[in-house]
Amino acid sequence: MKDKWLLLSVSSLIIVSSWLVFSPGNNSIQISNESVSDMWHFIALGDSRQQFGYWDDELQHYSQDNKTNPIRRAIINSIIEDNPNLEFIVHTGDMVCSGGEQDDWDRYFEDIENATKNNVTFYYAVGNHERYTYALGPGFWGPPDENFTTYLTNVELPGNERYYSFNYKDQIHFIIVNTEENWDHGFDITSDQETWIINDLENNSLDFIVAVFHRPCYSVRDSGRVWDANQVRNVLEPIFLQYGVDLVFSGHDHYYYRTIRNGITYITTGGAGAELALNNDLSEWQEGDVFYSEYHYCNVTVTEAEGNLTMTIDTLIFNETTKSTYLVDSCMVRPSTTITTTTEPTTTTTEVLTTTTGIPTITTKEPPTTTIDIPTTTTTEIETSTSLNAIPNPLILLILGLIVIIICKKGSKG
């Protein structure tokens, strides 16, 4: 009889435990697809044009004209493979080498076909090479296409497509500026575009503003590029300061460069396929700037928690041999406030070399197998209802188990 009641006790405990754990009622453990904070991400990159190669006198064009760019293709493939929840790609310009040649555009779309097959949206800024028609010789092109005819044939963008803006998720206002319009050895911005920029920013209601354009406001490439940057900065930076622009992505210089000036974070991302450049003019370098002459792209994650927006920009260097990426720089930007940190993988040897100007030049020795896992756009949280007396489940089990045993013992005595 004892064995009978012991078996009944154990069976009762199993039944009660199963009910508590698996019941679909208020005491169930529920898995929610909603994250603690809203999270999404996009990619920023630039200067993916074909590399020049050498000038062919017989054919009268560069050896790499009208050809695919294997580095460009590999970077796009890496982005698509590693970022299944990618929202869009921002391109800072110079998609192709000669913007007036349709063959160049055809090769570009061949190289990014993995992105287009996955319905990834591209937002483009016009680069100087989109304005070039065809090559005449080393460093020389035919008359510039001031109307960007071939460029406009190959893109689908908001507004007039030469400059435009858009809001994303009612969180961030993106404004894409055209630094190539009316460029003649300087940024002679048209009154139409300048008026449009001011009106656009005046009518913007979002706190977080990101500007995108080709020629940067700050350069360390060479004296000519520093002069160009001053031309752009003199026109755009006063407007950005007046209307609270928080972050700027540019290209043109073929490297990664990050600097903070007057509270604005400026990032030059020009390493998506064109020949890489060095920092040969450090006259405007300041302490805290970050520089890498490597192929790369920026993976940008936007999070919102309790109404506060944060943009985390992770810069990933791309190894063209192993087709892998590794993190070299990370910074966080918030509306009207910028917090920055620099992150390097522990397996990377970083050397800080001092030039004759006393300004550090950063070089890296790349780890061959280091990769970065990009977080998905959703997280999982455990939601437990407290409607059943707010008692922890293990304690409920113990109490109910003891009650069952007592009842069973009484039954055995009877």
Features:
globular; 9 helices; alpha+beta; 7-stranded mixed beta sheet; 414 residues; single chain
Verbal overview:
- The chain has 9 helices and 22 strands.
- The protein has 414 residues and is of the alpha+beta class.
- A hairpin with a 2-residue loop joins strand 13 (256-261) and strand 14 (264-269).
- The protein has a 7-stranded mixed β-sheet with strand order 6-5-2-16-17-18-19.
- The longest helix is centred in the first third of the chain and has 21 residues, at 2-22.
- It has helices at 2-22, 70-82, 102-111, 113-117, 128-131, 149-154, 191-203, 223-243, 393-413, and strands at 29-32, 38-45, 55-56, 61-62, 88-91, 121-124, 135-137, 140-141, 164-168, 172-176, 208-212, 247-250, 256-261, 264-269, 290-292, 296-305, 308-318, 325-334, 337-341, 349-354, 360-365, 381-384.
- The N and C termini lie close together (11 Å).
- 28% of the residues lie in helices and 28% in strands.
- Helix 1 runs antiparallel to helix 9.
Q: What does the average pLDDT come to?
A: 80
**SS-derived structural category:** alpha+beta
- The low-confidence runs, each spanning 5 or more residues with pLDDT under 50, are 13-36, 337-392
Number of strands: 22
Query: How is the main sheet built?
Result: 7 strands, mixed
Count of helical stretches: 9
Major beta sheet, strand line-up: 6-5-2-16-17-18-19
End-to-end separation in angstroms reads: 11 Å
Percentage beta strand: 25-35%
Question: Per the principal axes of the C-alpha atoms, what is the gross shape?
Answer: globular
Q: Could you tell me the radius of gyration in angstroms? A: 29 Å
| Estimated helix fraction | 25-40%
